[in-house]
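FIELD: query
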Amino acid sequence: MSTPSLTPQGDPVLEALVRRVETLWLRRPAESVPDLAPDGQLRRAVDDARARLQRFAPWFEAHFPATRATGGILESPLQAAPALEDRLSALHGVDLAGRLWLKRDDILPVSGSIKARGGIHEVLAVAERVGPQRAPEHGIVVGSTGNLGLSIGIVATEFGFRTTVHMSADAKQWKKDLLRARGAEVVEHAGDFTAAVEAGRAAAAADPSTHFIDDEASVDLFSGYAVAARRLRHQLEALEVPVDTEHPLIVYLPCGVGGGPGGVTFGLALEFGPAVHCVLVEPVEAPAMMLGVRTGRHAEVSVQDIGLSGRTAADGLAVGRPSRLVGERVGPLVSGFATISDERMLALVALLEETEGVCVEPSAAAGLALPWRVQQQVVTDTQTGLTRQQLQRATHVAWLTGGDLVPPAERQAILAHGRAALSAVRWGMP
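FIELD: result
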């Protein structure tokens, strides 16, 4: 148990975090999308990332057959979830206003997680800079709880880069084994995500031929994630789903250090402006982003400062200290922050498999129950920028962030824990 060094001082949200109570903090997001840098760096970086991924599409088709169906483009489907929506409405005792969709990054080609978007993009940026033929002369290093390292390791080793992944104590053994089988070096740490990142940063700094992929501050990672937004726009248009201020798009994104959900949030704000509302959801033991934004201290505060462990069944979300890039620059665009218990996440894994036949990692299920919680709070809170009438016409998208590469035995163990949790979790609105 961590010793608290920060007290909530009468703040109800911080008090809920300290007590490990599931909570939801909604607010009005910024009305316009800032450049986030004096020279508009991030806006241009998103356009550059979109073009780079297109340039490498033939390479992916040649090296990863699973991408041939999409012409070498790394993209996932948008899927309606009527059975899950009906089941969760019954459990909560209220119908959902609007409609629930799943963004299936759990089956994103190559590495089966949202991390493929940003992590793979940064590897491509390095490959262009040094030249693919010279990749064996260069190293790539990253610190990870699992899926980012997996995504980077799979593609970097395919190029021939000397690839080292520093992994925290929360990383799953099967992910370490898969990386080693691909030829990556895996360095294990007894500490948390922050310790793994610092170790990776120090190792890369000692070797000028090595590039460090910084999950806490990388623009290449961030812009790779943001590319998803325009693709989602095209998917919604193809399905004839309207998105405007009277038909809001509400997106629920599991959040660890914040790079993935922050990049997606920024991209969505560029595409949809005030019509989109992004809600970031974190485990009750690791609400790093909510804590950083609520206190205004961002990367200068950790969950251990309020007595939390940072440990969770959702290894991809086991982060104690948030990204400075996301918290400070993208935080104003976020409409809400939420926490969820491990038990509810696991129960939602079981519900998703039971109703839709989709099996994901616990972190990917974190946002599935949020539409009902948001609906309840909007009814009673006039400070969110949403009305009950808008909610009736809302499109809810839960972003499924990982799961496709989970080994069968691990998958069955997760489902068993989920089914046990399903019978114990309390549902319904308080």
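FIELD: remark
Residues 142 and 165 are 5 Å apart (CA to CA).
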